[in-house]
């Protein structure tokens, strides 16, 4: 007889497939497939942003790793994600991004750079960075799900990876962005319910809300040399996970697709509440590993990614464990779908349609998007299968490289009329270059490398812009034009 976990998993897969078929019938153009026709409301926009933000990478990789190292103070990362990664991001970016991308007719971040700075060469460069460096992030999602399925379903890691590849292909290749956002709403509800129940049950295991934090602190003192992980490491994790998403194309995509500027305030509030609940629940579960592993870190050969799955399998009752598995699966499939769509667009929209064949038909473009999505899924699987790096390292590499390259040129592009194409190019090169050098040459934590690579371009871009030719005034006027009343 099938277990409850297996029944819910099968039902979840069927739901995704049905959603993909439904969305496919309503997907007529490339803009429909990639942006849902720019007609997405506040609740679905908010849930799509939140479910793309948090995945198995957070719950399994970051929570297990940083929750063990820092204990309950790791929850400050979740709070930072809500305040800076959700609330402030929507306030600063959403309205200007939606307005400017519509003014410029841009659907992707590489297309935005090319049109905003009147620099065609920025489009293929940005597209190449996205395609190369979002693959490791996608692989980190695979790894988190693989560990979870191996521990709780008894499914071998490799088989679990193939299963996830197939599930993502079923609904994403059929329905594109519309299928993703429809399932995101359902998945978001599952995530919220599962997170609240998870905190309640784990707090009970830790002695109740009145004493659980004190108990975690006492256990951490026995398990971890406190001085071995300084406050700067925790601070860099807060900054990296909160501000790197500002420059990640799969997150910015949510602003492009918003139905109208009038829904942004509501979406901002919903996203912030969602991020606060999910983020705090994730890092609280990671800190609770100290109370489960009372005798110290088990024989995992330093792989912190397995701590949370082992604890939850032992402590959660069957129905709640089934709900938690759906929570992780929901978050991860949404993140994976966003990564796949954005990465495949670099070939179908930015390389082929933008540089090779500008007259390609809508149907051919959508077909190419589907082909490249399948290729991206397969590539991510191969990296997750062969790469032994921790989830945190894989995610930090991706977020640091892409966020470092794009964040400064993107923010300046939205707010400053004085940044030049040379300044934008310098920001991209310095952000990416600093990340690669720090990761490969220094022994700094991966999160700290990412923060440094994000900050430096904010100085480089205006300095280079001050000594190089300005963007034509007609381009500036078009980009910053206000909507007609």
Quick structural gist:
The chain is an all-alpha fold and 485 residues long.
Description of the molecule:
The chain is built from 21 helices and no strands. Helix 5 packs across helix 11 (249-256), helix 11 packs across helix 15 (318-356) and helix 18 (421-441) runs antiparallel to helix 19. It has one domain: Up-down Bundle (Sodium/glucose cotransporter). It has helices spanning 4-25, 30-35, 42-53, 56-70, 75-104, 109-116, 122-152, 157-205, 212-223, 231-243, 249-256, 264-287, 289-292, 307-315, 318-356, 362-386, 391-415, 421-441, 446-455, 457-465, 473-479. 78% of the residues lie in helices and 0% in strands. It is an all-alpha fold and 485 residues long.
Give the secondary structure arrangement, pairings included:
Elements: H1 4-25, H2 30-35, H3 42-53, H4 56-70, H5 75-104, H6 109-116, H7 122-152, H8 157-205, H9 212-223, H10 231-243, H11 249-256, H12 264-287, H13 289-292, H14 307-315, H15 318-356, H16 362-386, H17 391-415, H18 421-441, H19 446-455, H20 457-465, H21 473-479
Helix pairs in contact: 1-8, 1-15, 3-8, 3-11, 3-12, 3-15, 4-7, 4-12, 5-10, 5-11, 5-12, 6-7, 7-8, 7-15, 7-16, 7-17, 8-12, 8-15, 8-16, 10-19, 11-15, 15-16, 17-18, 17-19, 18-19, 18-20
